[in-house]
Design a protein that fits this description.
The complex is a heterodimer. Chain A is mainly α. Chain A is built from three helices and no strands. The model of chain A has no long low-confidence stretch (mean pLDDT 90). The chains are: A mainly alpha, B mainly alpha.
Chain lengths: 86, 194
C-alpha cells in the first residue's frame, strides 16, 4: 500500500472519529438533563405547577440542559458532520 | 417580576453550557473546519458578547451591595471586550494576534470579580461555596485560553478551555439562594427553602 493511501486512510479514520464525537455531544447533553430530572424531580416544577410563580415555571434547569442538547444536535452538529464528511 | 438570584445563575449556566459545547466541538474538529461556515465563526464570540450584555441588567437590578454592583459591572465589560475582540479577529477588523489575550483576561477578571464580591466564607452556604469555587475555577481556568492564544493549534488547551466553560455551567446550575453545602449552612444565611 502506498504512503499516500495510508495517509488518506488515517485521515479518514480521524475524520470519522471526530464526526462521532461531535454527533454524541448533543445526545449526551440531553441524557445528562434527563438523568438530572430523574435524580432531582423537584427541580421540574411542571410536574407540580400549582402555586408556582412565573420564574419557577419558566426556568427549569434539567429542561434547559435538555434544550441546549437539542439546539446543539439540531443546529450545530449536522453542519459540522457534513463538513467533516466532505 | 425580578427573577430570584438562583434563576439568573441557571439562565447564565445555560449560556455557558452552549458556549462550552460550541468550543468543545471547535476543539474536536479544529479551527479551520469550524470556520468553514461563516455563522459558526461568529457563533461563540457573539454568545460571549451577549453574556456580557446580559450582565448589565444583573448589575442594575441585583444591587445587594456596592461590591456586587461593581463586580457585575466589571464582569459585563470584560465579557463584552472578550467577545468583541474575538468578533473583530474573525471579521478581520483586528489584525494584532495580541487581541487573542482578551479572552483569558476576561476569564481572569471574571474569576477575580467572583472572588471579590463573595464576602462570606466557603462554608457559609452553597451559594458562597460555589462563588468561591467558580472564582478559582475561572482564575485558574484562564490558563487554558491563555495557552490556546499562545499555541492556537493545540487541541489540549482549546479542549481545556471548553471544559472550563462546561464546569462553570455545572457550578452555576448547582447554585441555590439559601441551601447547605456539605451539611453546613450558617444561621446568618437565612431560612433554607426548597
Amino acid at each position: 500500500m502506498s504512503t499516500q493511501l495510508v495517509t488518506e486512510a488515517v485521515r479518514a479514520r480521524r475524520r470519522s472519529a471526530a464526526a462521532r464525537a461531535v454527533a454524541s455531544i448533543g445526545p449526551l447533553t440531553m441524557l445528562a438533563g434527563v438523568v438530572w430530572a430523574f435524580l432531582q424531580p423537584y427541580r421540574l416544577t411542571l410536574l407540580h405547577p400549582h402555586g408556582e410563580g412565573f420564574w419557577w415555571l419558566v426556568v427549569e434547569p434539567p429542561l434547559l440542559v435538555i434544550g441546549v442538547g437539542v439546539v446543539f444536535a439540531l443546529f450545530v452538529a449536522p453542519g459540522l458532520i457534513e463538513d467533516l464528511e466532505e | 417580576m425580578l427573577p430570584p438570584a438562583e434563576h439568573v445563575h441557571w439562565l447564565f449556566a445555560t449560556g455557558f453550557l452552549l458556549l462550552g459545547l460550541c468550543l468543545l466541538a471547535r476543539a474536536i474538529v479544529g479551527d479551520e473546519l469550524w470556520g468553514r461556515r461563516a455563522w459558526r465563526r461568529y457563533a461563540w464570540p457573539a454568545l460571549l458578547f451577549a453574556l456580557g450584555l446580559f450582565m448589565w441588567p444583573v448589575m442594575v437590578f441585583f444591587t445587594n451591595s456596592t461590591m456586587h454592583m461593581l463586580a457585575h459591572g466589571i464582569w459585563a465589560q470584560a465579557l463584552m471586550v472578550a467577545g468583541a475582540a474575538e468578533l473583530g479577529l474573525v471579521r478581520g477588523k483586528l489584525h494584532n494576534p495580541a487581541w487573542r489575550f482578551a479572552t483569558p483576561f476576561a476569564l481572569a477578571v471574571s474569576g477575580a470579580a467572583l472572588l471579590v464580591h463573595e464576602q462570606s466564607g466557603w462554608l457559609f452556604s452553597r451559594a458562597a461555596f460555589l462563588h468561591h469555587a467558580l472564582g478559582w475555577t475561572a482564575l485558574v481556568g484562564a490558563l487554558f485560553p491563555l495557552m490556546a492564544a499562545i499555541r492556537p493549534r493545540s487541541r489540549v488547551w482549546s479542549s481545556g478551555f471548553a471544559l472550563v466553560m462546561v464546569v462553570v455551567a455545572v457550578m452555576l446550575y448547582s447554585d441555590r439562594d439559601v441551601a447547605p453545602v456539605f451539611g453546613h449552612l450558617s444561621p446568618l444565611a437565612g431560612e433554607q427553602h426548597r
